[in-house]
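Hi D.,

Good news: the full-assembly prediction came through. Inputs first.
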Amino acid sequence: MLLIRCPYCQSDLPELEFRHAGEAHIARPEHIADVDDATFAHFFFYRDNPKGLTYERWRHVHGCGRFFNAVRDTVSDKFVTTYKAGEPKPDLPAAANANEVAK
Amino acid sequence: MNSQPNRLVGKGRLTPAHKVRFTFDGKSMEGLAGDTLASALIANDIHLVGRSFKYHRPRGIVTAGPEEPNALVGITRDKARHVPNVRATVQELHDGLNATSQNRWPSLAFDVGEVNDLASPFLAAGFYYKTFMWPQAAWAKVYEPFIRHAAGLGTAPTEPDPDAYASRYGHCDVLVCGAGAAGLSAALVAAEAGLSVIICDENPKAGGALRHEADVMIEGIVGWDWAKATLSRLAGLSNVRVLTRTTAFGYQAQNMVSLVERVSEHLTDPSATPVRERLWQVRARHVVMATGAIERHMVFANNDRPGIMLASAARTYLNHYGVAVGRRVGVYTANDSAWAAAFDLKAAGIDIPAIVDARADVPEALVAKAARLDIRVLVGHAVTAAGGKLRVSSMCVARADGTGETEVIPVDAIIMSAGWTPSVHLFSQSRGKLRFETETQRFLPGQHAQDASCAGACNGAADTAGALSQGIAAAEAAIAALNAKGKASTTALTTTGGTSWNGSLIGAAPGAEAGKVVKAFVDYQNDVTAKDIRLAVQEGMHSIEHVKRFTTNGMATDQGKLSNMHGLAIAAEVLGKPIPEVGLTTFRQPYTPVTFGAIVGHARGALFDPTRRTPIHDAHVKAGAVFEDVGQWKRPWYYPRAGEDMHGAVNRECVTVRKTAGLFDASTLGKIEVVGPDAAAFLDLIYTNPFMKLGVGRLRYGIMCREDGFIYDDGVVGRLAEDRFHVTTTTGGAARVLNHMEDYLQTEFPHLDVWLTSVSEQWAVIAVQGPQAAAIVGAHVDGIDMSADAFPMMSVREGRICGVPTRLFRMSFAGEDGFEVNVPADHGRAVWDALMATAEPLGACAYGTEAMHVLRAEKGFIIVGQDTDGTVTPQDAGLAWAIGKNKTDFVGIRGLKRPDLMASGRRQLVGLMSADGSTVLEEGAQLVADPNQKVPMTMIGWVTSSYWSDNAGMPIAMALLENGFARTGEKLYASAAGGAGFVEVIVRDTQFLPTQKTGADHG
Amino acid sequence: MAEPITAIRAHPLAGRVHAGSGVAITLAPEAFRINLRARADALATLSGALSVELATMPGQSVTAGNRLALCLGPDEWLVIDVKNHPLTDLAAVEVLHSAVDVSDRNTAILVSGPSAADVINAGCPRDLSLAAFPVGACARTIFGKVEVVLHRPRATVFRMEVWRSFSDYAFQLLAEAARDQA
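Then the structure:
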């Protein structure tokens, strides 16, 4: 079971309290009713599923209830960082380096 | 036979007066308290304890610990408590212990399956893969039954497990796995510094190798006594938890280690403890792995004969249990530590006919000491074969280089050592990287992947002194890493005596080299010989992972504890590659077998899954309701009266509701309170329906889609105030709908001032439906004008009922006049009773979920999840009216515009009636246009709901049908129950009862 | 008009109690509860109205008289009071917030004794050591297969708030875990 840092509770908490919620930073088009099929398809169906560092959403569903974002390495299963919903996407290499330094 | 003929007077640490009786294969025997089954069997001069898996060869006890590959027995307490494949070397003896040997028929000494041994040329590595390939037809009748019969060791119990199991999450600063010299010193230092420590060991007592190394002194006292004193000191500290009989069997991410604690396995009466085993999931900030090392056997011909065992095991049996493994014990080694075992045995009066050492050079001191003890030494020699069958009777000794004569030396036991393999299983599970130390031919922990350290023999320590200092160093590293506030007073531990654990031989010993057609076992448990490994490589298995699977070397519960390094060395030799290039196979969890009970823990019976009951549940029980499971909920299904079957009860309930009235417990509905100035705007985005203009005190039926345009949930939304809504969801959708709404609120529409609170369980809900509903409810209401003008259909009023607050919804899912009475849950039962007391004299009744389903189907109301399946749009379900035509946004608005969703001919929800007016269709039945077409037929839809309706006087059904709306009046065919042909059906609308002017609930 | 029914609330676990070695499992007195949601700028006003200083960090609680306010999320509080309904105190508050009555949604089980943390750790993955979960700490978390809110009023006492229909499961799991305390 992983320990996940909730950016709202500011503490490392057991994975059982969390639920994964798919890829992060996929914005719902502002005038969604008017977008063309390709735009909608990219918004709704297409996902990157990269090997390595991935941006994803989690919800501290059995805790503070907040959705937040995380950068996780899908190879090592290690979280690089977590941050609040709405905060900008952290620069990937910088985030990865920060983790190395922190260790 | 003498009782315990091999028990030596004055030897070992057990108390001779503490006798224990047990049985093996039905024979009653005597052992001592503190014995393992293995030590007690050897005390009784029994070495033959089982038959091997594949060849049914007689097998004995090889080790004195958890690494035992051979001595697997069944332990039976009673009919329900039978455990197969218990290692006799870890099963603690208790009064009445009942052990039986396995894999033999009719008896251990005479086993018919032994023919497999003679047939072994045909049972070589890969036999199964090569043989059971064709013909295909032979699989079901010949091969599979044969394999199933041959597969598996031991028998599983046939009755449910009567024991209880516990689970526990644990947290600590430092988890120490292993309580040998290294683990104890690490735990001691960490604890002294004030860190919270959990120390576990799979044995009943601490000490590790000190159990057999009787000559080691630590801090001036006998090592074993130091271990005992240290453990009891640790147990007395408030920041330490000591777990003995506890195996660390799995290492998960972020320093979570799984431990299984055996609580009652060693007790005569298993009910003396509340649980049999306890699973610990320990999260440690730092883990110290002090998992020791496992001695390897020598790979020589017939090295599996009973009576042949590891030197350290023989030393353990002697020094700890006071048991001699034989009276004339041969020694075969490539390592110093076996010499110490030979010296101890000799000193105890056991005849040692020879020490055969395969090495050319042996330390002078050992040779000198052997000479002093008058032991014959054959350095540079090899045991080329063992004689005997049910028990070893001799060893054939020749020069290691193959020259000269072979001498046959009679023995009744052989002890052996090819050196020590560091136990790196846990380290490997932690994803740490192993490194190969060429000079000692060992894999040792290299780079850690987690916050952990290794100490002692698992980390390459050469002796007890090294283990102690590594333990201290590991703890000091943890103290520094964790910034411990305290300071340890222990900085070093003095030690004398003991042997070096170095010196090593891996691979086949002389005499079992390539080209020799002998059975020199590498893996006892899986019956893999040196020859099998060579064959695997020759047949093209060049990856060690392939060799493992082809030969089964190191598989199953053994996990290569003894065999891994030998197998690897032999494969590397044939491949002509250095060992590190060939690499190790992955060590799997669990380290040793773990019961399913321990993994399941508390989650059995009532605790398998929560059973949810409404506040009114007991009233339904009292009324004789039959319940159905709806998710975790128990819901009243129907209320049979004397002499009524389900159909009778449901028909009566349905008719009563439409004629008079019925009460229904709808408390399980999901309920969400939506509060804030932007509440209406939020609901407008979440539902397809418009909500901005819904008046205060009004209700609206709402459809919720996902972004793809498919129906996700439905429910009724009530506006209590400008900024307050009471929303209902389906019972099953309660949690996910709230999650769905929170997701949009938090991440897509965070600018809205609105909050969501689950009130599903705040309110008990009593639906009162039918012509008499207003009379029943009105009799108890205070402060609400019940007239249809003041309180029309699809409205909500707040007031009091029976003196408690209510949110009273005037609505119906049965298409009658009706109410949903929301009252605080703690008062639900009392209000139900009061309403029933008024209802029953009027001829009304309680009705269950089945009647509710029929009543709503009679009016064509859908159930999301039954009449929809995640591919149905509101239009498909005939609910196009529920989509706000003027809205510029709602979840699903764009998805609904996708070409496929707007195409004609989609599956649409229609009504069906059986042409014969009597056959009730089967839910899930497929629809076809022509019942005589060729199979596979073209299926054009299926039945989603089907009931007998007494109110309609006919069967009614709904179906999802391709282009269904255009097919009204068409004759189709539905597959009949049990595959008995087809039922003729006619497509129609879903309004099975004439619509009355009630306003229904689609207001 | 029918006679009002009794005002006595029917406790979902009425009469349940478990006494084990080192732990007792009992029912907390009935209470009024609200779920309070608000932004930071409203806290001073709400704290004043409720007469309890609302904590701002999830996991912290404040007790004032009969009133207990648990901060469960960055904008969420569970306010519990055995005497006076907190909803009444907020009736006239104009500042932006959401207060919802959840008095009957939850029920509370008290786990007390030296083994209380061990018993809860039979199903709760949180670190309940005093260092990690000190007196006054609270958390919404998992217990076995249900969600609960834990609060630690004293070193050896935990209050477990659980939804009504999950309370039977929670109580049974606590009782079974208590039996495991040797």
